[in-house]
Amino acid sequence: MTEKSKSTTKGINTRLAHLGYEPRSFHGFVNPPVVHASTVLFPDAATLASRDQKYTYGTHGTPTTDALCEAINALEGSAGTIVVPSGLAAVTVPLLAYLQAGDHILIVDSVYGPTRRFCNTTLRRFGVETTYYDPMIGAGIDALMRPNTRLVHTEAPGSNTFEMQDIPAIAEVAHARGALVSMDNTWATPLFFKPLDHGVDISIHAATKYPAGHSDILIGSVSANEKAWPALLDTFTNLGVCAGPDDSYMTLRGLRTMGVRLERHQQSALAIARELESSAGIARVLHPALESFPGHGIWKRDFCGSSGIFSIVLDVADQDRWKAKSHAFLDALEIFGLGYSWGGYESLAVIANLSDRTVAKAPSEGPVIRLQIGLEDVSDLMEDINRALAASLAA
């Protein structure tokens, strides 16, 4: 990369267009080559014995994966980045990197569901104890720290209900007690929040979402600061969970347009969220950028943007009617697809399952519907949502 393309003084879309790859390094082609690799040849026996060359085997990196990692490093301000085959792998690899039998981990209770499942099954089997904490705890997390607490895992906003966490306050306490801090920052991306600038040691992304951006790739990234990088790299190397070259190439290509896509997602989602605040049949809108949201102050202080996913709480007094009302809402949608994941160009809706919460209880007013706002026209999406709300009210 040239110094010009590295410069952090350039605008974000300028940087996204050039980060990670220098065309002159490969005959001037503007995108990096897709290197499919397992075996890498060595020039002689001495080099084979010493492994003293940049590439030694396909699982340890290729020019394609390096281009993506270098771009993410530049966005995160990290010492190193790994790319792995899914967003869930991006969560589990660092947990395996920093924890061992007898350790204790603190996990925010509004965490991504599969993270909880991994902690409650695999980590438990390996002798690691997990405690779930209130996402609003802030510096109060000090009361939950133990001598053997090695890691505090955060996620802001929280999955499905979008609680905001005071990340700097949590990081200060954790570091004072000798623990590392990890953060699932998939919602904001490093464009709207840079975890390592706020005390986080390990930044995690389901790059399946906004970086890839087209609902056809599974990939994750983990970026670490100088202190946390060696253990992360060591575990990544030992596990061999490397992302494939084609997915890495497509994710880097997605990064080039992530800035303009995120701006559209942000504008559309906020416009829809604001309109839904006064809609009949909705008890609450869960979006951190709304002034009415309890965590709005933290979002405004620490974040510089919001993405395209939020939730609504349907106003259904009779809990026995929650299922019928939410199903009626979803079944009436014509533009929104019914499907998991988010960050792609198309709008999606799902019922949020909050039954696994232990501290951060689910809203009591009604079922929670998570909306991913895609790149369609806002007027068409609002017409679709209003149709669904009418169907829910009538059910």
Automatic annotation (TrEMBL):
Modified residues (N6-(pyridoxal phosphate)lysine): 209
Keywords: Lyase, Pyridoxal phosphate
SUPFAM superfamilies (UniProt xref): PLP-dependent transferases (SSF53383)
UniProt superkingdom: Bacteria
Segments passing through the bilayer: none
Pfam families reported in the protein's UniProt record: Cys_Met_Meta_PP
Cofactor(s) essential for the protein: pyridoxal 5'-phosphate
BP terms from Gene Ontology: L-cysteine catabolic process to pyruvate; transsulfuration
Keyword Transport carried by entry: no
Molecular function terms, GO-annotated: cysteine-S-conjugate beta-lyase activity; pyridoxal phosphate binding
UniProt catalytic activity: L,L-cystathionine + H2O = L-homocysteine + pyruvate + NH4(+)
Gene3D superfamilies cross-referenced by the UniProt entry: Aspartate Aminotransferase, domain 1, Type I PLP-dependent aspartate aminotransferase-like (Major domain)
Family: Belongs to the trans-sulfuration enzymes family.
The protein, known as: Cystathionine beta-lyase
